[in-house]
């Protein structure tokens, strides 16, 4: 009996950790990535599109359509990109033989999201590994957008109030809090979230990270090159481990054995707080008496997750 292939649409801001996450999906024999939409975040939206083309070239998958989307948050308060990913999102490690921008689709990412959800109704899983601006705009364009999805996986937010951009906000939600608010409250699709704290808790010991990058093949050489700036940044700042995030989400999406503990809860996003703007607020005690709208992954099986990462670079 053949296994039904999963159809994924990936919405990304294609920084360093997005690269490995996308490659995991591209190399999975039971997955069809039917499109990749690009949003500002680790770089401007068009640069993100160029980064995605480099990923597809490494995976020999340049036939997958890439759509450039929103380059500003819903309310226009654009945040500066993090130094962690470099000015181009890919560690300032250019490729003279990178695919030409003519390979980017002319259709806007938001229009593509709505169209593809209709064409693959009930079959397409949306994987969000960047700010949620494109997805929020798709909801605004078509209120039935989310109900057409099989499910939605989001890397973002925080379930313990710990931030990596402010005292209490994670990067993807911080980059466009209003978009995150719209998605969590109005998507009308099963949502699974992997938060910053979960990724931080399951960071990679340096010994294991260097083991991942020892092979001499096309994927490993590419990842080593674009990650070098981030690795140097981590070491200079005395981080005790390497902290990828989007990889955790994609691993959970493609292999549910990665998930150890998750909770059905109601969660929203603070969009008015002076100190907590962009924080994901989780109603652990059902104080708000609202219907659960998300599953939050709070713990994963580290060995299963690390096997997913190792399988990619050994292939």
Quick summary:
The chain has 315 residues and is an alpha/beta fold. It contains 11 helices and 12 strands.
Structural key phrases:
single chain; 315 residues; alpha/beta; Inosine-uridine Nucleoside N-ribohydrolase, Chain A; 8-stranded mixed β-sheet; two-stranded antiparallel ribbon; 11 helices; 12 strands; 18% strand; globular
Shape: globular
CATH homologous superfamily assignment: Ribonucleoside hydrolase-like
Could you give the distance between the termini?
25 Å
Order of helices and strands: EHEHEHEHEHHEHEHHEHEEEEH
Number of helices: 11
Number of domains: 1
In CATH, the architecture is Alpha-Beta Complex
Spatial ordering of strands, largest sheet: 3-2-1-4-5-6-12-9
Over all CA atoms, what is the radius of gyration?
Answer: 18 Å
Question: Sheet with the most strands?
Answer: 8 strands, mixed
Strand and helix layout:
Elements lengths: L5 E7 L3 H12 L3 E8 L6 H14 L7 E3 L40 H11 L4 E6 L3 H9 L9 E5 L15 H5 L1 H10 L4 E4 L1 H6 L2 E2 H7 L5 H19 L4 E2 L3 H9 L4 E7 L1 E3 L10 E3 L11 E7 L1 H13 L1
Helix pairs in contact: 1-2, 1-9, 1-10, 3-4, 4-6
């Amino acid at each position: 009996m053949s296994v039904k292939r999963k159809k994924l649409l990936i919405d990304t801001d294609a920084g360093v950790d997005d690269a490995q996450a996308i490659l995991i999906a591209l190399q999975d024999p039971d997955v069809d990535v039917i499109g990749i939409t690009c949003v500002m975040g680790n770089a401007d939206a068009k640069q993100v599109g160029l980064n995605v083309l480099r990923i597809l070239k490494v995976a020999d998958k340049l036939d997958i359509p890439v759509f450039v989307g929103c380059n500003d948050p819903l309310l226009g308060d654009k945040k500066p990109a993090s130094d962690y990913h470099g000015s181009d999102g890919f560690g300032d490690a250019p490729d003279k033989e990178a695919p030409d921008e003519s390979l980017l689709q002319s259709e806007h990412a938001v229009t593509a999201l709505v169209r593809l959800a209709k064409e693959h109704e009930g079959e397409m899983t949306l994987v969000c590994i960047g700010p949620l601006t494109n997805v929020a705009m798709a909801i605004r364009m078509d209120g039935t957008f989310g109900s057409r999805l099989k499910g939605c996986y989001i890397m973002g937010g925080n379930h313990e109030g710990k931030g990596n951009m402010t005292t209490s906000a994670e990067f993807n939600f911080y980059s466009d809090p209003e978009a995150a608010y719209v998605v969590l409250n109005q998507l009308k699709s099963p949502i699974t979230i992997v938060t910053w704290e979960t990724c931080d808790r399951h960071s990679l010991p340096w010994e294991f990270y260097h083991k991942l990058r020892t092979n001499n093949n096309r994927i490993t050489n590419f990842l080593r090159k674009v990650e070098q700036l981030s690795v140097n940044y981590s070491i200079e700042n005395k981080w005790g481990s390497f902290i990828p995030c989007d990889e955790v989400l994609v691993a959970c999406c493609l292999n549910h054995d990665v998930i150890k503990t998750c909770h059905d809860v109601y969660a929203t996003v603070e969009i008015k707080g002076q100190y907590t703007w962009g924080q994901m607020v989780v109603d652990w005690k059902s104080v708000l008496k609202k219907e659960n709208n998300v599953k939050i992954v709070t713990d994963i099986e580290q060995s299963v997750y690390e096997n997913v990462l190792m399988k990619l670079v050994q292939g």
